[in-house]
Every structure is written in C-alpha cells, then in structure tokens.
Amino acid sequence: MTQTLVTGATGTLGTALRPRLTAAGHAVRAASRSPPDQTRGDSDWVQLDLIEGAGMESTLEDVDVVIHTATAPQDDSEAVDVQGTKRLLDAAEKAGVENFLYPSIVGIDNIPFSYYKHKVAAETAVEESDVPTTIVRATQFHSFIAEILGYVAKLPVWPLPTNMQFQPIDVGEVAEAIVDHAMATASGRTDPVGGPKVHSVGELARAYRAARGLRRLIVRCPLPGNTVAAFRAGHATCPDHMVGTVTWEEWLAGRYASGADESPPCVQSAT
Ligand SMILES: NC(=O)c1ccc[n+]([C@@H]2O[C@H](COP(=O)([O-])OP(=O)(O)OC[C@H]3O[C@@H](n4cnc5c(N)ncnc54)[C@H](OP(=O)(O)O)[C@@H]3O)[C@@H](O)[C@H]2O)c1
Predict the structure, then answer these.
(1) Measuring from atom 20 of ligand 1, which residue has the nearest CA?
(2) Which pLDDT tens digit goes with each residue over 107-119?
(3) Domains along the chain?
C-alpha cells in the first residue's frame, strides 16, 4: 500500500484529496497545524507547521508519496510556500520519498502577483530538488471564485473588473487528476488541468447573482496594473486543456440549491 502524506490536509484541495486517495488504495497521512482530535475515518492525522518545521522527519517516516497542498496565500507565503516547501523537500529527500507532488496554478509565471511569484519560486525549488517530483498546475477552483464574489455580494452595487478571464474547475476533478499522478514514479511537469469553459468575470458574476437569487447592479470597474492586465489577457486560463466537466453554472446550482439565500435589495439589475 502506498503511504501518502498530504500537507494542508484541512484545506480545499486537501479535503477533496483525502477520500479519493483512500478509495484509490493509499494509506493517507494527513498533516495540519491543528489536526482534529480523532481520525476522520480516512486519514491518520499528524501535526505539522511548515514555518516551525518541528516533527518533519517523523511526519515523513515511511512515506512514499507527498502531495504538498499546504499554502498561505493570505499570510506569509514566502515563509510557508517558498521556505516551507524547501524545508519539506529536504526532509523528503532524506526520507527517500519517491514522488513529491506539487499542485500549482496555471499562468503564474506570466502574472506578476506576489503570491504567484512565491508559487513560481516553490516550483523552481521542487524542480531543482533531488527528490523525484511532479507538478500539476490547475486553474482557479469554483469555490475560490465564489469566495471572491462573496466579498462583493453584500454591496448594493458590485464594482468588478468584468473583463478579467478565468476558467474555474471543480476541486474534486483537480483532486482526481492529482490522484492519477500519485504513484511511485514521478511525472515531472504535467499538462495543466483547466475547467470546461473560459469566462469573463462579468459572466461569472451574472451566473453567481442568478444562482443566489440576488438583484444587484454589476458595474464594470477597470483596475490598473500589470496583474489585472495579465488576468484580462487570459494568462490564468488554459483553453487547450479543458479537463474539468463540471460547469460554473452546475457548481453554483449545487452550492446554492435552496435558491435565494438573501433578501434582495431594491436595486434594478442592469447587466
Ligand atoms: N484555490 C484555488 O483556486 C487553487 C487553484 C489552483 C491551484 N491551487 C493550489 O492548490 C494548493 C491548495 O490550495 P487550497 O486552495 O486547497 O488551499 P487552502 O484551502 O488555503 O488550504 C491550505 C492549507 O494549508 C495549511 N497551512 C497554512 N499555513 C501552514 C503552515 N504554516 N504549515 C502547515 N500548513 C499550513 C492550512 O491547514 P491548517 O490550517 O490545518 O494547518 C490550510 O488548510 C495550493 O498549492 C494552491 O496554490 C489552488
């Protein structure tokens, strides 16, 4: 049985990976800074903080495959994603790990966003490591797009950079693609994994608004800067790799199945 360590196992991708790995016959060791008291049925939980690094050797003991999903996009991503990844790679090399699998993001080398710069640095560390490695880049998860739109959802008017392009994907489908590579033989840099359609932010927001039964005015708010321009140019998308099958509308229908979840304000919908 393949012993597989999942870092960031409480996160969006980690949570989707655990049951799929178990179903595929892996023994899963799930790492978190705050592991739950008891096993959740599919995993053996261990405590791991990538900044402190304590207990890394025992965490990696007898591990064949590492799937390193831990990340800190809204925190100190240099410390967690770059230095933490290097620390984990060193420990993985000492432990004789056969495949260190690193989930990453489509287009990060062409989008000058600080978190993405740290992801590129982490990818470089992964590729330069002596551990056999696999990198799977994916487009943004549906849940991530919904979380971002959730921030503006409370406003009576939604000012949005409507021309930015995304290709959202179901996290379960990303997890399935990663499980396919979670074997003793590393695959190197794989084809990216994208959702079934490229959308503008305007399209995503209109479908989100409809799924939540909201009536809000969506106002185009062009933002300056190279990062936004790169998203507008479609650098975060991979239209040649539409691997996912769950559309944004289908995902929204599942997520907001009960219909309107908020009282509509007195604003006329215009877009
Ligand atoms: N979200 C997207 O749309 C998307 C798209 C493509 C690729 N990806 C990539 O997929 C991977 C997973 O993303 P995600 O969205 O699932 O992330 P997430 O939900 O934010 O989960 C990340 C996990 O990392 C753990 N973590 C944070 N700081 C840590 C530290 N100092 N030490 C150890 N663990 C720490 C946290 O777990 P604890 O709090 O339990 O420690 C957290 O649950 C990332 O590499 C990301 O770049 C994400």
Answers:
(1) 11
(2) 999 999 999 999 9
(3) 3-138+171-189 (3.40.50.720)
